[in-house]
Amino acid sequence: MTGSSVKMGSVPSNIRAPLVPLEIGHASYIALLDPATAFWALVAKDRLAQVLASGTLLDTFHERSADFGRELHDLRFELKPSAVYVNPTERCNLNCTYCYIPATMRRKGKDMPTEQLLEALDRLKAYFATVMPAGRKPRIIFHGAEPLMNKVALFAAIEAFGDDYVFGVQTNATLLDEVAIKFLTDHGVSIGLSLDGPAAEITDATRRTWNGKSVHNKVLTAMDRLRGYDAWSVIATCTEKNLDQLVPLVELFHARGVPTCMLNAVRCTLPGARTVRPQDDALAQHFIAAIERSHALYQETGRKLVVANFANILLAIVAPTARRLMCDISPCGGGRAFFALAADGGLFPCSEFIGLDAFNGGNLFHDSVASALASPAFAKVTGRNVDQFAPCSGCSIRHFCGSPCPAEAHEMNGDMNRIGAFCGFYEEQVRYAFRLIADGKANDFLWDGWDEGVETTLDLILQ
Asked: Which has the minimum average pLDDT: 122-126, 236-240, 322-326?
C-alpha cells in the first residue's frame, strides 16, 4: 500500500540548505522545513525568493540545526518509560465494532486477581524506582477491555498505591455509578469515557452491548455526574458512521462541560475496525470542521474544549518536547514512553498489541521489565523508524505525524515498515495546524499553561 506523503520540494540551486517548501493552503504564507530535524519557518509567499536569497534564514538554520537534531533524537530514542497501561481484566461488557482486543478475550477472558494486581504494581514500583527522576511519580492507566469489570481489584490497587502512582481509568462508563465516581474522584483519579455520537442511534452504530443494547444514555449520565471535576475527558472514535455528526458531538461535549476530548481516527488493527474506516479526505473535512466549531464555542463562551489529539499535532510543530501523547512520533511511545500489562501478566509495547502473541515481550510475574523492554517483540516497535522506509522517508512532515500506528501498519498493511491507515488525514492536520500558527491562533487550541517552563528558541514567522 502506498501513501500520499507530502513530497519534498526544491529550493533554488544556489541555496545551500535542505529546506523544502510545503504549501499549507494559506493565502499569504508558505512553510519551509528541514524534514530531518523538523526545523521550520513560515515565510510570506511574496518574499520567499528574497528571504532565501538573503541567507539569514539559512544561516540561522545552520547555526541551530545540530541543536534541533539532538533534541529530536533524544525525544525519539532516549526516553524511558514513565507509564503503564494496565489491563486488570480481559473482559468487556460491550462488543464495539472497532475494538482492537479479540472478541474471544473480551467475552470469555479472565480477570487478574486482587493479590496479583497488587503484586504487579509492587513489581512495577521497583522497576520505576530505577528509571524515574526523583520526586516524579509514574502513571498507571487502567485500560481495557473494560477495567471496571474487575472493580474490586482495581479499587484495592488504587487504595494501596495512592502514594506511589498517578492513576487514571479509561472506561466505557456503563459501570461508572455514583459509588465508583465518588471513590475515583476522592482519590484524584483521572477518568476517560467513550462516546461516539450526539444521539443514541449514532453511538449505537459502533458501540453496544453483546445483546445489542444501547449504552448512550448511561454515558451521558456519567458525564453529568462528572461535570465540574477537573480530571476527566471523553474519547470519540471517528468512523464512517459518525463523521457528519462530529460537529454536533463537539457541541454536546462543550455543553456538558467536558474539559478535554479526543476525536481519534479508528485504529484499523483488526478486521472489524476496517469495516467502518472512513476515507481520508472525508475524515479531514469533518474533523477540521469539528475543530473549528470547538474554537467558535471558545470565542462565544470563553471556555475551551481542547481536542487533545489535534493539540498534540500542534505541539509537535511548535514545541516538540511538550507533546502529551506519543502516538504521533516515530518510533511511537510504545515500549519507550510506556508499555502495557495484560491481565495474565503479559508485557506488550502498547495495549493495541494485546492479543497479538508476536508482540508479547515476557510476563511480569516471571521476567524483569528490563528484559521485556529489550526483547525482540518490543524491538519490532521501538525500532520502527520513518526515516528508513518509503513513502515516509520522502515526506517532509514525517516527524510531525510519525506514521501511526505500528500495530495498524503491521496487521492491516502487512509489515511494520509500512504506513498506517490515514496518511492523507495526518497531512491535512499538519497543514491546518500551520495555518493556525500563521494566523496567530495556535494557543486557542492548546491547554492553558501549556508553555510554562517551555523556552522559545526561535520565532520564525517571516513577513
From this structure: 322-326
Instruction: List the single range of 64-73, 113-122, 284-293, 360-369 with lowest mean pLDDT.
Output: 64-73
Give Cα 61 to chain centroid, integer Å.
Answer: 29
From CA 145, how far away is CA 293, in angstroms rounded? Answer: 32
Cα dist. 296→35, 311, 443 in Å?
33, 16, 14
Least confident stretch, 49-58, 65-74, 218-227, 449-458: 449-458
Instruction: Give Cα 399 distance to the centre of its chain.
Output: 14
Distance CA 288, CA 281 (A): 11
* CA dist list (Å): 261 to 55, 149, 406, 446: 43, 24, 23, 12
| pLDDT of 7 strictly over 70 | no
Q: With 90 as the cut, is the pLDDT of residue 146 above it?
A: yes
CA distance 264 to 425: 11
Residue 347 CA: distances (Å) to CA of 30, 61, 340, 344, 373 = 45, 42, 6, 9, 9
Tens digits of per-residue pLDDT, 447-457?
Answer: 998 877 655 54
CA–CA gap between residue 340 and residue 335 (Å, rounded) = 8
Tens digits of residue pLDDT in 284-293 = 999 999 999 9
* pLDDT tens readout for residues 14-40: 444 468 899 999 999 999 999 999 999
